[in-house]
Design a protein that fits this description.
This protein is mainly β and 102 residues long. The chain contains one helix and eight strands, in the order αββββββββ. The protein has a four-stranded antiparallel beta sheet with strand order 1-8-3-6. A four-stranded antiparallel beta sheet has the order 2-7-4-5, with no helix packed on it.
Length: 102
């Protein structure tokens, strides 16, 4: 059974939403975003939704695919500061939006 917690309820719980973005300038190139310590939820999506992109937690390792038009919601996490790796093989200049809650 999964439980959905809305943004409004996250605010009631005292966690702060933050949004950042990363432009993937070159196709097939790995880019990084720092995710701060004490992050509890991450949502990752491509702004245009036109292409598949990949994310992962270690450089050079197999990355997890996110189909075109989809987003990835990673909830109920408790992480130390970490690096998120991003790549889009199909196009250059794509913007990935990362929303996270502390």
């Amino acid at each position: 059974m999964s439980v959905f917690i809305s943004r409004e309820n996250f605010a009631k719980l005292g966690v702060t939403p933050t949004q950042t973005s990363k432009t993937l300038i070159l196709a097939g190139t790995e880019y990084t975003v720092t995710i701060p310590a004490k992050t509890k939820r991450i949502i990752i999506g491509m702004q245009s939704g036109s292409n598949q992109f990949f994310y992962g937690w270690n450089t050079g390792e197999v990355l997890f695919p996110v189909p075109a038009g989809a987003f990835r919601d990673i909830s109920d996490i408790h992480i130390d500061e970490t690096t998120l790796y991003l790549r889009c093989d199909d196009a250059s200049g794509e913007v990935i939006i990362i929303e996270y809650w502390l």
